[in-house]
Known about the structure:
Layout (H helix, E strand, L loop, with lengths): L13 H8 L3 H8 L7 H14 L5 H8 L4 E7 L4 H16 L3 E7 L7 H10 L4 E5 L3 H8 L7 E4 L8 E5 L1 H15 L4 E5 L5 H16 L8 E2 L4 H10 L7 E4 L2 H13 L9 E3 L16 E3 L2 H16 L7 E4 L2 E3 L10
Helix pairs in contact: 1-2, 1-3, 5-12, 8-9, 10-11
Amino acid sequence: MTEQERPGRQRPSIYDVADLAGVSHMTVSRVLNGHPNIRPATRERVLRAIDEMNYTRSSIARALATNRTMRIGVLVDSPLQWGPNSTLRALEGAARHAGYAISAFSISDEPSAGIDAGLSALVAQGVDALCVIAPRSSSLDRLRRHREGLPTLVIKAESDPEMHTAAVDQRAGAMAAVMHLIELGHRSIVHLAGPQDWFDARARAQGWRDALADAGLAITPPTVGDWTSDFGYAFGSSLDASNATAVFAANDQMALGVVHGLAERGIDVPGDVSVVGFDDLPDARHFLPPLTTVRQDFDSLGALAMRILIAAIDGEEYAEHDSIAPRLMLRASTAAPRR
């Protein structure tokens, strides 16, 4: 038990933290709220003081003082998919760091779990702002008809004239993946796309097209998949390897299926066909062969989204759209073409 936790001792306040760190209480508040204009050394000193004093900000006291609930409502479409699920977890971590809590509602096409039901449930909790993880255009279309006047941010790859948006730059990630294949010498690169109702899938397909166009290469219609490794397996089982030396799959799960389907036909990856995925799943580096893919930094995305939401709550100006740069992870599933 620490000194601050002993029975009868008053819990440390934000002013105690400020005294220990040698800063003002407003600086401590800005650090807790994730304010970007704090010097790294100052931020680190404040965080050390918070840890040393075992300081926990009282959400009740903060709510009474600011007339806020310190709670962000999150609507999540397709929460079982890797991207939406990872984004939600990143938001939860960023919110805790900023002294906020998250109330999440999973939406679907069922009337009892639609956008209107989710908004009603979150508004009833008095949330200060709304974050929408809306990977599909259909879910965002429903949101536009049920706005509640709250500061709203949507996680999607495209800017929006009505709401703040933030995302990992999907088009840039796809272009980096395809340019890597082009630099290796590939000239016939096919795309296994995700469902085209998904913003990310459309942006990745556009990045594939743009990279091929920039290199003066032929663009054939992509095959549209459903994100699953089973679909990738079916694609790899029927791919005409004589007309394609590389595959850019819109996610790692479909890429895994592609490799499996090719391997069963005796087609070597990357000797005969190179394969690139997108997401960098935790197991992607353990695929056989380890998968070249595009990593999305969801932690940075969550922190960015929280900065924008807090600025909107505080009435401060912030860019209407901001994005996180992805990172190409080079592994053994890509190589120069043999022929």
